[in-house]
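Example (one chain per record):
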Amino acid sequence: MDGTTYQTSAVYSTASTGLALEAPLSSSGSKLPIQFGWRGGGVALKIFPDGNIGIGTTDSKGYKLAVAGSMIAESIKVKLQSAWPDFVFSKAYTLPTLKETEAHIQKKGHLPGIPSAADVKANGVNLGQMNAMLLQKIEELTLHLIEKEKEIDQLKLLKDKVIELDQKIMILQSKLTPND
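Predicted structure:
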């Protein structure tokens, strides 16, 4: 605190709202953040007047929840507003060739459509968007694997034909070669 005296928070409970904590007001009458912490130990939790919450930080940077440090959860649900990558299976989708993907990797050092390590370090990662990008890559890889399996099956058939023809050639050669 800066040494200024502020009105204290009010804690009250009603049957309709349950427990409520009213934000303190500054000397000018504006709402102040509610802070929980230790004397001389910094702020552990800060609830801003706009409803944003900071845990271990005094600046939520405009996010509804900002956590400085690690967190653990049993489940996090991300609901995207954008399209899920099932479009990869559409007939209209142009699947990048493996040669195109290889060229992009050699030129830029990361998969196409995936942020670089430098981008992630500078800007962080949006988990929902990253999951969608990774799923798109998995779906593209699945289509490539299906295609490669078809090619392998064709090659096996060709191999069997070659073996069959080789055996026929050996039989014909044995018939054409006089026995001594």
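Caption: The chain has two domains: 10-67, 85-154.
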